[in-house]
Structure formats: C-alpha cells, structure tokens
C-alpha cells in the first residue's frame, strides 16, 4: 500500500514540477510548484519525518511561495490578457494533482502510523528532533540565525525605496 | 461490531457534529454581529424575519443562492471559481485538531472529543492558516480587476506579517506545555490558563489573530471606502457567500484556538467541559465583534509598522524570557 | 517494495527538472522558483538517506537548507524588486551587463 502511495505521489510531484517549469504565466507556475511541495511533504511524511513535512508546508508552500506570489502580483508580471478558452481543460492537471494528493493524505492519515517502507522503522518525534538540533548542532543553529538576520538586513537595504535613499543622502528638500 | 467500524462511525459522527455546529455557528455569528453592532450604534439590527430576526441567516442564504453568479469576462475562470472554496475549506479543516471537550465515556469506551489528535496539532494549525492566504490572493488576482488585485496584495502582506508574530506567540505555549499536541496543551492548563501565566503572549496572539481574521481594525484587504470591497470586489452570489461564511468560520476557529492555547480549553469549575469551551469561544467571538464596533481602521503603514516593529520584537523577547524562566524553574539535566 | 534507491531516483529527476528550468527559462522569478525546486530535491535525498540509515542528522540538515532557502528568497526577491524599478523588466537577458 505504501508502495502505491509512493508511486502516486512521485508521479504527482514530477507532473507538478514539469507543469511548473513550462508555464508561461508565473502565477500558474507558483500554483503547480505548491502542488509539488505538497506531494514532497507527503513523501517526507512517509519517510518518518512529520516535522519536516509540516515545515515543508508552512515554510515553502505557506511562506516562500506566498512571497513569490506577492512579488509577481506587485510587479504585475502576468501577461495582461488572461488566456481564454475552456478553463476546465486547461486546469485538468491541477484537479488531477490536488485530487491525488488529497486521496494520499487521507490514506496516510488513516493508515497505521509509523509504518515506514523498507529500511528501519524510523520515526522522528519532535522531541528527538529538538534534542538533536539544539544539542549537537547548537553552533550551526546560531550561525543560521545570524544568516537570517543578515538576510533581513540585506533585504531591507536592497529593497528600500528611492525616497529613503534620497533622504539618506540628504537631498530631500 | 468490529472495532474499526465503531471507530469510523464515531469519527463520522464527530465530523458531522462539528460541521453542523460550525456552519450554524457561522450563520448565527453574522446575525449576532449585526444585532450587537446595531445595539452599539443605537439601532435594533435585523428583527423582521422570524422572532428577533432569528431566521435572518436563512433568508440571507436564500438570497445569495438565487443571485446571479457573475464571472468577469477577463477573469481566470478556474482560479476565480476555486478561490472561495480554498478560503472556506482551509478554515473548516482547521477544526479537525481542536479539542472541544474532555474525553467522554460512550458505550464503554473512551471517546476523545477531537476529530484527529495530531501530535503536531499546532503545526497543522499554522500550516492551514498559511494556506488560507491562497484563497484570498488567487481570488483577487483571478478577478483581473485593480481593486481586487490591490486588496489581495494587501491581504498577502498583512497575513504574512502577522502570521510571524502569531507563530512566535505560540512558541512560549509549546515551551510551557512541552508538547505540540493541542490536547496536551489543554491538559497542561488544568491549573492556571496560560493567559494568566504568560499575558504578553496572550495579548500578542490576540492581536495577531484579529489581523489574521482580516477584520476591523485590520480590515485593509477589504477596506470599503478605499478599494471598493478589496479581494472580493468581483464576487457575487454564492461565491461571495463562501468568502463571507469562510470569514466567520475563521473567526470561530481563531476564537477556539485562543481558547485552547491560552484560556485553558474545556477546563473550568462547576459546568461541564464542553459548555465551558463554547462559553469561552463565544466570549472571544464577542470580543471580535466588540472591537469592530469600537476601533477605526489602521492606515497601511501603521499596520506594517505595528506588526514588524512592535509585535514581532515583543514576541521574540517574550520567547527568550519565557525560555529563561522555564530553565530557571527546572534546570536541564546533563 | 520501495527502497532508498527509488527516493534517490525521484530526487535526481526533480533536481534535473529544476536545472532544466534554470537553464531554459528567462523570467528571473521562475528561475528562482526552479532553484527552490532543486533545493527541495536535495531535501528529499537527505530525508530518504536519513530514513535509510536511521539517523536524524539528515532531517536536521533539511532544517538548515530551509532556513537558507528562506533567507535566499528574501534577499533575492528584494534584488528583483530593485532590478524591476530600474529596468521595468525581470528577464535575465536584460541583466547580462551587471550594471546600469
């Protein structure tokens, strides 16, 4: 049963990725990529990493992709004319993908927990994960948090508007 | 009867109960809001349909269903069609992990009053609330109208910003309860609720939740006097109804999250647990309506400054202080 | 029977698709999304091997990869906004001079 779910999910991930890299409209690409991340999150869940699966949804689908969507919409990068024609056929892949992902989620939620395929019966609880992360990799956590700080400062510096820049130079009025 | 059949039936019964409760709750929340706002503004509110206007939600639903379902000619039809559904479904699904009462004994077996007690329930809630953004955003984008686009851009940036402080306000709760499971978090509050043990986190969470629900004073995505109706400008009929119902379901869900995370869930003296839970949810929902009747709308830059320069740093400091206090109270071994 | 090889093959195909996207697309945002996809393919192989070896380190590494991806998205998108302000376009062909 896990084998079937694995094949469905990998097919979904591959199809979603293929659609994502071929779409003309960036918003559509984002939608397909979100589907790919969902399929990957479920695969992570099969592999005994529920915490990472949750992050995949929260961080990738919920934050990074939303940020992309924000930029795309703010810069109005989408082609002015929305493509016409039968909407249903054009979006058939999305229906297929969402459908298969939902079915797999339901199957996984009702299936025996922790029944991993192959390999050792491995399941990382949040507690184990936390101990591993903050005991053995404490220094790396610090470095990564500094990196996030630098990124925030960098994004703020690069993205500041023309007005702020002029004010910094002191020639506003 | 085989064991699995009983379990399945129990889950279905709970599912039906919660579904029914949420939908009627959302419908009567609309009525309650109109009534209360009316009273606050020295009006009566709806009182024509049925006694005390109690059939008003039904009349509204009939009106919405029979209205013309209009799709703008330049719209991205599929996304336009699906977006209200995303908004409503993400709101509904969240309730799957909310424990709304203590376990009860039924037919000689322990039945937990929660549909699915995930051991990462908090993360499930965060994940779904971050996905709820898509409904609003794609709806606004697919309408192909400038007001809808402006509204959805506003919604996007507002939801991303306030989700951060919301997540950071949950961290102290997880630290204190030592678990991601909402049932365990409620059980950890059997003595004192976390709202009393950690008031800053409670206040930060309450404000962020107000912003997440896109209601006054944070209703910039649909600010009527600036951008018509924001992201649902082009929606009519039942599609608009879905956005509308989704918003009220969201209010109920967020109120129950406040209850579960900070007000001790079903714990309380005298009354049975389930009554306490719904009383607390009702109180927080009332708070939502009250704020709407009282506060003016923020300006956009005020919203962003408040989120990023006040709430997020405050939440970070709160995480550190809570962690330090917990470490002092029971020092780590090894 | 699904072995670790299946996951690694899936990861390799996803990585290749990401690379293909980076090389063929000209819209900088889509290229960026393809890079995220490649990072995710790597995450998949980390998690698959972590499961195979019964070792938590792979999952912890994925955590770091995700932080890097978030930081990268923030800075990269800020760069793109600045670029768009100056050039009214985000086609990578327009950035080939690296000056303006």
From TrEMBL, chain A:
GO terms for cellular component: plasma membrane. Its main location: membrane. This is NADH-quinone oxidoreductase subunit J. Keywords: Cell membrane, Membrane, NAD, Quinone, Transmembrane, Transmembrane helix. Belongs to the complex I subunit 6 family. It comes from the Bacteria. The chain crosses the membrane at residues 6-22, 29-51, 57-79, 91-111, 137-159. It is a multi-pass membrane protein. GO terms for molecular function: NADH dehydrogenase (ubiquinone) activity; quinone binding. NDH-1 shuttles electrons from NADH, via FMN and iron-sulfur (Fe-S) centers, to quinones in the respiratory chain. Couples the redox reaction to proton translocation (for every two electrons transferred, four hydrogen ions are translocated across the cytoplasmic membrane), and thus conserves the redox energy in a proton gradient. Pfam families: Oxidored_q3. It catalyses: a quinone + NADH + 5 H(+)(in) = a quinol + NAD(+) + 4 H(+)(out). Coiled coil: none annotated. It is found in: Cell membrane.
Automatic annotation (TrEMBL), chain B:
The keyword Ligase does not apply. One of its GO terms (cellular component) is plasma membrane. This is NADH-quinone oxidoreductase subunit H. Its EC number is 7.1.1.-. NDH-1 shuttles electrons from NADH, via FMN and iron-sulfur (Fe-S) centers, to quinones in the respiratory chain. The immediate electron acceptor for the enzyme in this species is believed to be ubiquinone. Couples the redox reaction to proton translocation (for every two electrons transferred, four hydrogen ions are translocated across the cytoplasmic membrane), and thus conserves the redox energy in a proton gradient. This subunit may bind ubiquinone. PROSITE patterns: COMPLEX1_ND1_1, COMPLEX1_ND1_2. The chain crosses the membrane at residues 6-31, 78-98, 118-138, 159-180, 192-211, 240-264, 270-290, 310-329. The gene is nuoH. Its main location: membrane. GO terms for biological process: aerobic respiration. It comes from Geothermobacter hydrogeniphilus. It is an enzyme of class 7 (translocase). It is a multi-pass membrane protein. The keyword Membrane applies. One of its GO terms (molecular function) is oxidoreductase activity, acting on NAD(P)H, quinone or similar compound as acceptor. InterPro entries: NADH_UbQ_OxRdtase_su1/FPO, NADH_UbQ_OxRdtase_su1_CS. NCBIfam families: PRK06076.1-2. The lineage of its organism: Bacteria, Pseudomonadati, Thermodesulfobacteriota, Desulfuromonadia, Desulfuromonadales. NDH-1 is composed of 14 different subunits. Subunits NuoA, H, J, K, L, M, N constitute the membrane sector of the complex. It is found in: Cell membrane; Membrane. Belongs to the complex I subunit 1 family. Keywords: Cell membrane, Membrane, NAD, Quinone, Translocase, Transmembrane, Transmembrane helix, Ubiquinone. Signal peptide: none annotated. It catalyses: a quinone + NADH + 5 H(+)(in) = a quinol + NAD(+) + 4 H(+)(out).
UniProtKB/TrEMBL annotation, chain C:
Coiled coil: none annotated. Its EC number is 7.1.1.-. It is a multi-pass membrane protein. The chain crosses the membrane at residues 6-23, 30-49, 61-84. Keywords: Cell inner membrane, Cell membrane, Membrane, NAD, Quinone, Translocase, Transmembrane, Transmembrane helix, Transport, Ubiquinone. InterPro entries: NADH_UbQ_OxRdtase_chain4L/K, NUOK/Mnh_C1-like. GO terms for biological process: ATP synthesis coupled electron transport. GO terms for cellular component: NADH dehydrogenase complex; plasma membrane. It is found in: Cell membrane; Membrane. Pfam families: Oxidored_q2. It catalyses: a quinone + NADH + 5 H(+)(in) = a quinol + NAD(+) + 4 H(+)(out). One of its GO terms (molecular function) is NADH dehydrogenase (quinone) (non-electrogenic) activity. Belongs to the complex I subunit 4L family. NDH-1 shuttles electrons from NADH, via FMN and iron-sulfur (Fe-S) centers, to quinones in the respiratory chain. The immediate electron acceptor for the enzyme in this species is believed to be ubiquinone. Couples the redox reaction to proton translocation (for every two electrons transferred, four hydrogen ions are translocated across the cytoplasmic membrane), and thus conserves the redox energy in a proton gradient. NDH-1 is composed of 14 different subunits. Subunits NuoA, H, J, K, L, M, N constitute the membrane sector of the complex. This is NADH-quinone oxidoreductase subunit K. The lineage of its organism: Bacteria, Pseudomonadati, Thermodesulfobacteriota, Desulfuromonadia, Desulfuromonadales.
């Amino acid at each position: 049963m896990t084998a079937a779910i694995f094949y469905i999910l990998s097919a979904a991930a591959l199809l979603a990725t293929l659609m994502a890299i071929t779409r003309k409209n960036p918003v559509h690409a984002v939608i397909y990529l979100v589907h790919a991340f969902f399929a990957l999150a479920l695969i992570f869940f099969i592999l005994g990493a529920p915490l990472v699966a949750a992050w995949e949804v929260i961080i990738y689908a919920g934050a990074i992709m939303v940020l992309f969507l924000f930029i795309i919409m703010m810069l109005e990068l989408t082609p002015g004319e929305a493509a016409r024609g039968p909407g249903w056929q054009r979006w058939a892949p999305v229906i297929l993908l969402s459908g298969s992902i939902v079915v797999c989620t339901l199957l996984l939620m009702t299936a025996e927990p922790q029944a991993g395929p192959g390999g050792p019966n491995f399941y990382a609880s949040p507690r184990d994960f936390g101990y591993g992360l903050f005991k053995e990799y404490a220094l790396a956590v610090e470095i990564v948090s500094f990196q996030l700080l630098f990124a925030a400062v960098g994004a703020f510096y690069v993205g500041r508007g023309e007005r702020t820049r002029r004010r910094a130079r002191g020639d506003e009025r | 009867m085989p064991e699995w059949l009983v379990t399945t039936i129990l889950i279905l019964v709970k599912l039906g109960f919660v579904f029914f409760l949420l939908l009627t709750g959302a419908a009567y929340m609309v009525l309650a809001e109109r009534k209360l706002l009316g009273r606050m503004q020295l009006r009566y509110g709806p009182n024509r349909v049925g006694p005390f206007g109690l059939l008003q939600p039904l009349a509204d639903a009939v009106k919405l269903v029979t209205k013309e379902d209009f799709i703008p000619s330049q719209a991205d039809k599929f996304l336009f069609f699906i977006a209200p559904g995303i908004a409503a479904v993400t709101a509904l699904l969240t309730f799957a992990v909310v424990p709304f009462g203590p376990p009860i004994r039924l037919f000689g077996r322990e039945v937990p009053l929660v549909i699915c007690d995930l051991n990462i329930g908090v993360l499930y809630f965060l994940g779904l609330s971050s996905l709820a953004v898509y409904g609003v955003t794609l709806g606004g984008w697919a309408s192909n109208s400038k007001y809808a686009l402006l509204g959805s851009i506003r919604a996007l940036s507002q939801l991303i910003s306030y989700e951060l402080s919301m997540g950071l306000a949950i961290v102290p709760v997880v630290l204190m309860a030592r678990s991601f499971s909402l049932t365990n978090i409620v059980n950890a509050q059997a003595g004192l609720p976390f709202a009393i043990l950690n008031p800053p986190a409670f206040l930060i969470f309450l404000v962020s939740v107000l912003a997440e629900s896109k209601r006054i004073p944070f209703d910039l995505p649909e600010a009527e006097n600036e951008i018509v109706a924001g992201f649902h400008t082009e929606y009519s009929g039942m599609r608009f109804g879905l956005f509308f119902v989704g918003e009220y379901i969201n209010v109920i869900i967020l109120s129950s999250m406040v209850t579960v995370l900070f007000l001790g869930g079903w714990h309380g003296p005298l009354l049975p647990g389930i009554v306490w839970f719904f009383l607390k949810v009702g109180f927080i929902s009332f708070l939502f309506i009250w704020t709407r009747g009282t506060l003016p709308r923020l300006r956009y830059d005020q919203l962003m400054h408040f989120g990023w320069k006040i709430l997020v740093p405050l939440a970070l400091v709160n995480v550190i202080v809570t962690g330090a206090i917990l470490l002092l109270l029971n020092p780590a071994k090894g | 029977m699904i072995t670790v090889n299946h996951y690694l093959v899936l990861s390799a195909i996803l990585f290749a698709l990401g690379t293909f996207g980076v090389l063929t697309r000209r819209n900088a945002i889509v290229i960026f999304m393809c890079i995220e996809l490649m990072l995710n393919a790597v995450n998949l192989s980390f998690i698959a091997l972590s499961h195979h070896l019964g070792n938590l380190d792979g999952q912890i590494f994925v955590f770091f990869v995700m932080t890097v991806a978030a930081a990268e998205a923030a800075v990269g998108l800020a760069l793109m906004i600045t670029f768009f302000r100056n050039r009214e376009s985000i086609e990578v062909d327009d950035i080939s001079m690296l000056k303006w």
